[in-house]
Amino acid sequence: MLPNMPELVTQGSRRLGAALKELRELAGLRIEEVAGHLDQNPGTVSRYENGRLKPKWPTVVMMTNHYGATDEQGKRIRELYDAAKSEPKPVRLPSGAPSAFRRLVYETTVAWRMRQVGGLYVHGLLQIESYTQALRETLHGPEASQVKQFGVRAKRQKRIEPADPKPLEYHAILDEIAMTRQVGGPSVLLEQLRHIADVAENWDNVTVQVVKKEAGDYGFGSGGMTLVDYDNGEPTWAYSESIMGAQLMEDSEGVQRFAEMFDRAARIASTPDESIKFIRQQIEVLENL
To answer: Where, residue-wise, is CATH 1.10.260.40 in the chain?
Structure first.
């Protein structure tokens, strides 16, 4: 585990832990009994099951043998273990980064689709470096710990590039104010809008919509929200940012409510073609300054 980095529940470790927990419960064993068999404390076994700690393979074998797992169940556990082991390593972030944001950064590497909406600025996956730097300096100052995040963002952005072996399906709904707010000045915004327009026009896995002022309120105000989807049956979860900080939402009712809000925003936003046209118009305005 990286220094000052809290435990990160990844998709693979969560699935492995859930499968081990299911086998234990089928065997009618308590966590304390398993801990005694492994000569470990119950807290460690609990962390195996909730995905916060990946057990070594010999430990997994001891567990499955103790549970009386069938050959088929053992084969499935091996598949889950290998998948968890091959997951991308956690990204190194400043120690003060919220755990919710760490989760979002990691899941970008394994998700099938991300849907983002709202906020006063261009979403991170679409930001160019000069825009990110100007925004960071405004919000946090030019501290070295913040500058280190540029590399992290660049790695995340590669997931939406067509060159990625399995590019992320990405749907961004941007507020008109983000398209006109001159973060870093007119020249930086000009290059940022050119990048968004090029991506929206040429990358089939990326959809960009703009909510114009006349469309009215759509529920997200100054904050933003991200829905993270998987293609293997894992449940969707949501990440939100506001003046209260970053939060995760995993209960099905809350996530469904956010999904409905996203769909409403998509309905009142300009169509993708209309949005590209609007962005091109803003580019022309900046070019003529």
So the answer is: 11-85
